[in-house]
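Can anyone check this?
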Amino acid sequence: MAQLIRDTAMQVDEIQQQLLARAETALRSLERITTGRDTVRHTATDGVLQYVGVEIDMLVARRGDGIRLLKLLTNSYADLHTAAQQRTPQATPSHAPAPPPARRRP
């Protein structure tokens, strides 16, 4: 279970890194427009962001799915851990502890 949690967390982190990279790309494209440095593309009809916006939407959805799965896995692990502790009998001493040894006076 721990390996599955680790693998899922690593996948969510990888998706997050991809999302940040695509968002940076979109940000650079939009900054060119806001600063007036964009070029007019008379022949292009695919928009300013092209497919980056769709990629960002897909990555956000994948990240959300991964986070939900990670929460489900960690909650399941906690439930299993709690159930295992409840099944394990607690050790109880069979007798009272021995008193500490008496001090000797010199």
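Reply from J.R.: I decoded it. The radius of gyration is 29 Å.
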